[in-house]
Specification:
The structure is a homodimer.
Chain A: E1 23-28, E2 40-45, E3 50-55, H1 63-72, E4 79-86, H2 93-110, E5 117-124, H3 131-143, H4 150-156, E6 165-173, E7 176-185, E8 198-205, H5 209-221, E9 238-247, H6 263-282, E10 290-298, H7 301-312, H8 315-322, H9 328-337, E11 348-351, E12 354-358, E13 361-362, H10 368-375, E14 379-385, E15 391-398, H11 402-408
Parallel strand pairs in A: 4-5, 8-9, 10-14
Antiparallel strand pairs in A: 1-2, 2-4, 3-9, 6-7, 7-8, 10-15, 11-12, 11-14, 12-13
Chain lengths: ~425, ~425
């Protein structure tokens, strides 16, 4: 598979992820699908590590989703095995066996229980996964475990990504400094791979699974659930957070996520997830522009999100933006299509901060040259107020370009 | 605006629409937006004509939608004025005045009441419509009324269509022969016009407005509501049926649409609407393939429709089809994304009648060459059974091609 050109929206600088106590990793070339690159990641966590996850709601999930859903309930984890190249989806019982056997073998090398090993797969679907190759590489991976191989780990889980996605933050819990590292993958689909968004977060903070789950869920709602590339939702999306519990105050119980001691951690976690989500949408197939759609004045936050997603998922809006066209008419159409309450005669739209429509009518004289300059840049900002109440939401997407079709249509099976 | 190449999916033969008693029409060049072509249609109906309409559910409708919604309730109509080139949308009170004044002037030349004149507009949005030009052309249009100018009428209402859309059927009501003619327009969007689907049906049958409404609503559910080009929904979609009541049994009351005497009329009307709807989706921007998506085994007919629409609206499925790729994996993903109940281990998929997936797994040896031949043809047939119950639905769409983007992105404002 020839290398893809790096997205024009890739971040200028790579973040550096430093070791987190209690967490080690190793990457291997298991030749599941790709040749000549790392495609298998083993992460090992010290005993006492707590875990939480958020999994796809797609009704056709792969067996690894079901495996994780079942075993995340214990709230503890000792390992994670991720393979890129085969999504282990839609292959009947073979896929279920593949999960179980991989977990069993990983548990053997990590000296833990199979149910403490999380499994994730991304890549082609419908082809039985050669899990024996994963298993064969586990002993060597265990021998090679190191605490500073984060960048390689991020590259290992890539499928159609054009750049590895990483983020890191530090936070303070009751005066203790803790670290949060995150890696993610996801861009879109290249035949016959499935779009899959995976994100794995590791922190050395000492946190119980219930709080991890609550914070991850909230964080995902504010990040990965606010991006869309083409409106399609994978069979394999998942986000997981592992807390090695090596840093932080002893003998302190946090009752809820609203505990003031967790405020900084929460903020930093949400910010990290948002950072990774923006990296994912920046790698949308063929993307040339990152688009921020901010809706205000809706009946509720959920209504605002639905309106924003209606705009962000509209092929006509995205195609117009690809052509640097400030086509606010299509934005009006997408607002109307959302089915959400909107006051036609109070509708206002701004592009790049310049108001182009106000009170349901187009603004007679707005600075077209400023708007054009904005539309020709890589970061597009659309604001819509629907004049009903105070609900707000912001979503991100990318434009719809010829390159999207080159990737998704211009090939033969 | 340079002429567009005719869609490769346009019908081979044009249907001939012959006169319908009690209905006359005339087309004019009012230069609202286009030059050198007819862009204004006046239709006149004899007294006694009954009418029903189905209008867009988009929450940002144009004023003509509101006008028609209000005046359709009387169930009678004497005129219809349609203009192409300006959708009369999003221009505040100017648009409301434009409707009212146009109806008033049309009523004057047709010698009826303004509320008996229906108004429809399609074209650019946000620009105040030059309705004085419509009004100026009404006297000449009235003088030119003729009963056989159907083909010109169909061409007059076109905006981004590449061919005029017409259909005709004859039906029998209690042994009386009646005629049904229909014209429609709609394909998609070219900057800065809005996607609008308009369809106008005229019959000489003698039918009360309540039955017209019931049959039209049901017919639209089975036709225009089962097509999608890019999932976007116009601010101005409408379908109207006018019955001049010139033919058919006197003094017969039909109690409901289920009256056996109406069976043939119903069938022919639904068939005509379906015909027009297929013509519209065949003119989807950039379409090179007409795609039929048939879902069975769903929890209900509505669930089946939602699954089918999820597949039909998926950019990834449509792009794959544009590339003649039988990518059933994306179809699986789209089924899962629909949120509807589906049995993963009973899922089966057939392409061009060849089963490619069965019982949740891909079929080991299917005739790839037959499937490839099918994928390279202009008519694509996808069947999905989700193995839950007996709900069925069939929807139509077209593929997503570079030409779509050339039309929608490759231009400057």
């Amino acid at each position: 598979m020839k290398p893809l050109p790096v997205s024009p929206l890739a971040p200028n600088k790579k973040q550096i992820l430093t070791p987190i106590a209690g967490c080690q990793m190793a990457s291997r070339n298991a030749s599941i699908y790709y040749d000549g690159r790392f495609d298998m990641l083993l992460m090992a966590f010290d005993p006492g590590t707590t875990v939480a996850g958020v999994l796809t709601t797609n009704k056709m999930p792969g067996p690894s989703i079901n495996w994780c859903r079942k075993h995340l309930s214990s709230g503890t984890a000792r390992g994670l095995v991720v393979n890129a190249g085969n999504a282990n989806v839609f292959t009947g019982t073979h896929g279920i066996v593949a999960c179980a056997e991989t977990a069993k073998s990983a548990a053997a090398v990590l000296k833990c229980q199979p149910q403490e090993v999380m499994i994730a797969s991304t890549g082609v679907i419908g082809e039985p996964i050669r899990y024996e190759r994963i298993i064969a590489n586990l002993p060597a991976a265990q021998a090679e475990l190191a605490d500073d191989a984060w960048e390689i780990a991020a590259a290992t889980i890539m499928t159609t990504d054009t750049f590895a996605k990483m983020a890191s933050r530090t936070a303070s819990i009751n005066g203790h400094s803790v670290k949060i590292n995150g890696i993610a993958k996801g861009s879109g689909m290249i035949s016959p791979n499935m779009a899959t968004t995976l994100s794995f977060i590791v922190t050395d903070a000492k946190l119980p699974p219930s709080l991890l789950k609550a914070m991850l869920t909230r964080g995902i709602e504010r990040s990965f659930n606010l991006i869309t590339v083409d409106g399609d939702q994978s069979t394999s999306d998942m986000a997981m957070i592992f807390a090695t519990c090596k840093s932080g105050p002893e003998n302190i119980e946090f009752s809820t996520t609203k505990d003031p001691a967790l405020r900084d951690f929460r903020r930093k976690l949400y910010d990290l997830l948002h950072d990774l989500a923006i990296q994912v949408v920046s790698d949308g197939e063929g993307a040339s522009k990152l688009i921020r759609v901010a809706v205000s004045g809706a009946a509720s936050a959920l209504a605002a999100k639905r309106i924003a997603m209606s705009i962000a998922n509209s092929p006509l809006v995205k195609a117009a933006i690809a052509g640097a066209d400030a086509n606010w008419g299509r934005i009006v159409m997408a607002v109307g299509k959302s089915g959400q309450k909107a006051n036609r005669d109070k509708l206002s739209i701004a592009i790049g901060g310049i108001e182009v429509a106000n009170n349901g009518m187009c603004v007679a004289r707005y600075d077209k040259s400023k708007v054009n300059t904005h539309m020709n840049s890589k970061n597009i900002d659309i604001e819509v107020d629907v004049g009903v109440s105070r609900g707000r939401s912001i979503v991100w997407t990318c434009d719809l370009t010829h390159r999207y079709l080159e990737i998704n249509a211009d090939y033969r099976n």
